Backbone:
């Protein structure tokens, strides 16, 4: 579930990973079909807000939820992080595995296949990254984000970055779509009072390119909290 606005030529490729128990067939099929439409779905670059937040931090353990084709995992591993990268799409995980191998950082990255509506990685992490963990399918977003918060180790951080509005090139097709504000997302996490510190809560803008090459500005919603 990775969204960076970049596209590539269309092709079709079958996933090679077996489907584990606990992965919904419809969900897996949707995301495998989405990735299978193109040889590369996203740009391969790390999400900029992750770079901005994680760049100054000491490297530790990180959980990359919805890792897509591995752009964030490659960047994090290159910075010295030990990465657990998770996605429901076998096609995405195949590509992410190839990306970390090509970058020479495979020893720092563990891949796990999860349908986050049903299963969640075990353990705790110094950083949990949920980048654009949004889906057109039925998706218990707040339940998953609360599980992500529970996976943060003491002293660690949860970074949630989400789309804040429909891209300008798609607004005509989605005139009534609404996105939770950062404040609403933070409230929905239901964090234990006194145990968390809010470090960032904002709606940064960035430039992006649409599927037909059209430039535009996007609004992201960002929540960064630290467990005390």
Residues:
């Amino acid at each position: 579930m990775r969204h960076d606005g970049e596209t590539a030529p269309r092709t079709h490729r079958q996933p090679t990973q077996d489907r584990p128990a606990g992965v919904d067939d419809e969900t897996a099929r949707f995301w495998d079909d989405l990735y299978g439409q193109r040889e590369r779905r996203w740009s391969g670059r790390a999400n900029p807000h992750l770079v901005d937040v994680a760049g100054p931090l000491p490297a530790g353990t990180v959980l990359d939820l919805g890792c897509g084709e591995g752009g964030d995992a490659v960047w994090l591993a290159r910075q010295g992080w030990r990465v657990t990268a998770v996605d429901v799409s076998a096609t995405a995980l195949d590509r992410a595995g190839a990306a970390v191998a090509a970058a020479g950082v495979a020893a720092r990255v563990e891949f796990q296949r999860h349908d986050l509506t049903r299963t969640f990685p075990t353990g705790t992490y110094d950083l949990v990254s949920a980048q654009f963990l949004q889906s057109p399918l039925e998706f218990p977003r707040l339940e998953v984000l609360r599980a992500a918060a529970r996976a943060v180790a003491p002293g660690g951080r949860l970074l949630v970055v989400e789309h804040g509005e429909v891209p300008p090139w798609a607004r005509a097709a989605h005139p009534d779509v609404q996105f939770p504000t950062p404040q609403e997302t933070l409230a929905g996490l239901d964090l234990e009072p006194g145990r968390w510190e809010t470090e960032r809560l904002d709606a940064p803008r960035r430039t992006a390119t649409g599927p037909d090459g059209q430039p535009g500005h996007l609004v992201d919603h960002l929540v960064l909290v630290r467990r005390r």
About this structure: Confidence is low (pLDDT under 50) at residues 1-17. The radius of gyration is 17 Å.
